[in-house]
Structures
1.
Amino acid sequence: MIPRQAKDALLRLAAQFPIVGVTGPRQSGKSTLTQAVFPGKRYISFDDKTMRELAKSNPSDFIAAFPDGAILDEAQKVPEIFDALKLHVDNSKYTPGQFILTGSSQFRLKTNMTDSLAGRAALLKLLPFSVKELKDAGALAGNPYDLIFGGQYPPLHDQKKHFQQYDWYESYIDTYLDLDVRDQINPGNLSTFKNFVQVCATHSGQLLSMDGVAKAVGISAPTVKNWLSILEASFIIHFLTPDTNNLGKSLVKTPKLYFIDSGLLCHLLRLESKEELLLSRHKGAVVETFAVAELLKHRLNQGKQPNLTFFRDNRGLEVDAVADWKHTFAIEIKSANAPESKLSANTRKYLALRKDSDAKSAVFYLGNERIDISGVSYVPWTEWGEFPA
């Protein structure tokens, strides 16, 4: 098993809160992580109809059957369980880390935890493997485009399973539509929704144009907004909001859309090999998507908020990512494989506008060496998953 960076954050939260929720996209490794971190706990999956019906029929007795706690997988499928957990925690000795809940629907799990378990629970988000996790396990591809095209969902890196990439992604999409989408939209719109996801793929790494997506799919702008929220809640996409920092009024206010996994993105773009990716007009956007996902994983694996934005003004100055962490990092993302000083032109202009002496500039590029040039860090792709260390 490839060790997960999120382990320390999960243990930290479980040492404080009686209930910890772990959410993330399907097949990101939530069940594997929780069972590895808490091997002594009973594991109950509410994908099992028998367990689901037992929990629904008498949730209080169901919870009482596990005095030492348990891992409850896909907990959002039994909403009744959350009030029972609240009563159990309130009426029992305070025991950190007693129940671990997992779920593929961030919206449902978070909503139920917020409504019923406020102050009693913490939430951790787990995305697919990071570059650092694969590198530490000796499983990192030698060529960045092998990883960018192949993606980072754990089953695709399990040597025991022998999945073919195309077949796995097709199955993933069908399962996602059946289990995560079907009950949130009119079932007659599933084929339209699938087309919608493919159209969204052509917008990854770009400013969101709801009107453009609506026109391409043939649906209304309000429907686009609703369907985007479904994709975001199920960790298919992520939005970066624009950074302002009071730098003026002539700033773009539209968010940028990114897919969480570059391999799924390539599949939806109908790219059939890394060679096709290299020649594709989408190459730059796919590389940027890959990099933004690594920045998200770096933060979420620590149990921290992403605090990640982008900057663009109406005069054409753009910075791909602005990370407001211990220090502010202005980051340019390039598909170049050699460091050049001109690659940092925009980040240097942005920092000059911001006038923050503690802010730093970085360029993510596809080379193999970390180099500092005139105060700018040029970060190779093998270190994106551990930036800024």
2.
Amino acid sequence: MEFEAGDRVIAESESTERPPRRGVVEEVLRGEPHPRYRIRWDDGHETSYTPAGGALRKAEIEPSA
């Protein structure tokens, strides 16, 4: 799946002891077939991220309360 700037995403953890990370795609650095994204994580950190197959997915929109 390819993502665009502004998409909310969830990165699955490789460890069962860590929860998934949530963030926003700030920039698409490289597209398919080997995508790379600049993501600002909800904890305030920003990284360049190259997802392994199935490791990154679009976050569901949470309904307003």
